[in-house]
Amino acid sequence: MRLGIWVAAVFYGPSAFGQIGPVSIGAKVGVPLADALEVSSPESCAGAAVCSILNYSSKTKRYTLGPTVELRLPHGLGVEIDALYSRLNYDSYFFSSRPSSGQLSAFSSARADRWNFPILLKWRQDVPAISPFIDGGVAFDHIRGVESNFLNGTSSNAPELTNPTSEGLVAGGGIDFRVVRYLHLIPEIRYTRWFSRNFTPASGTAFGTNQNEATFLLGITF
Q1: Of 34, 87, 139, 201, which is the most buried if we count CB atoms within 10 A?
Q2: Which band of pLDDT confidence, cut at 50, 70 and 90, is reported for residue 46?
Q3: Where along the chain do its domains lie?
Q4: What is the overall mean pLDDT for the chain?
Q5: Which of 199, 206, 216, 160 has its CA nearest to residue 55?
Q6: Taking the model in full, what pTM does it have?
Q7: What radius of gyration, in Å, describes the C-alpha atoms of the chain?
Q8: Are 91 and 57 in contact (CB under 8 A)?
């Protein structure tokens, strides 16, 4: 059902919105230039009689995609709103070794849906067929659909998820290629600085959401 709405919006949007203003809609796909989760080098208990470690590893696939809408204003200005989806996956491994209790180990994995909502003010140099642009604004993200597997059980909660929603500042730039009258291809590099981390571990282990996020995006709009 959702896919059908997206398809209908992309193909029928220009005629529907053309009567009320210069609105373009479409979709964006992208590749993050760094992992969404920061993980420290794994610790080891080798040679230690008493030891306790908690190691993390990121399994996140680097992709993002979602719909985009832009309202074009006079003097090359515009306002763009995106809804970009990505998937977060990570594993954790706990190991403890003590003479009194022996060795204990546990493995868990978690995954979650992440939605990123940038709201951007754009300025483009309006030249025929090729229009360079810069943009900037704010972004909000939200983590949902969490699923954690631990000791053969499944939970809808992950202890590392301490902040489901965060905010940040966005800056970027790219080129708007007008392929035909309505079809535009828009490659862009975008940087986001998040004010807080979504994920932080209970211990002092270095793990969490990357607060410096750079992404290559390709927009297809009408």
Answers
A1: 139
A2: low
A3: 2-39+62-89+111-221
A4: 85
A5: 206
A6: 0.83
A7: 22
A8: yes
Position 152 confidence tier, pLDDT thresholds 50, 70, 90: low
- What would the DSSP string read from start to end of 31-97? EESS-SEEEPPPP--TT-SSEEEEEEEE-----EEEEEEEEE-STTEEEEEE-EEEEEEEEEEEEEE
**What letter represents residue 147's amino acid?**
E
Q: What is the model's pLDDT at position 13?
A: 45
Using the predicted structure, report yes or no on whether residue 115 has a pLDDT greater than 70. Answer: yes
CA–CA dist 108, 85 (Å, integer): 24
From 3.60.20.10, 3.10.180.10, 2.40.160.20, 3.20.20.70, which CATH number describes the 2-39+62-89+111-221 domain?
2.40.160.20
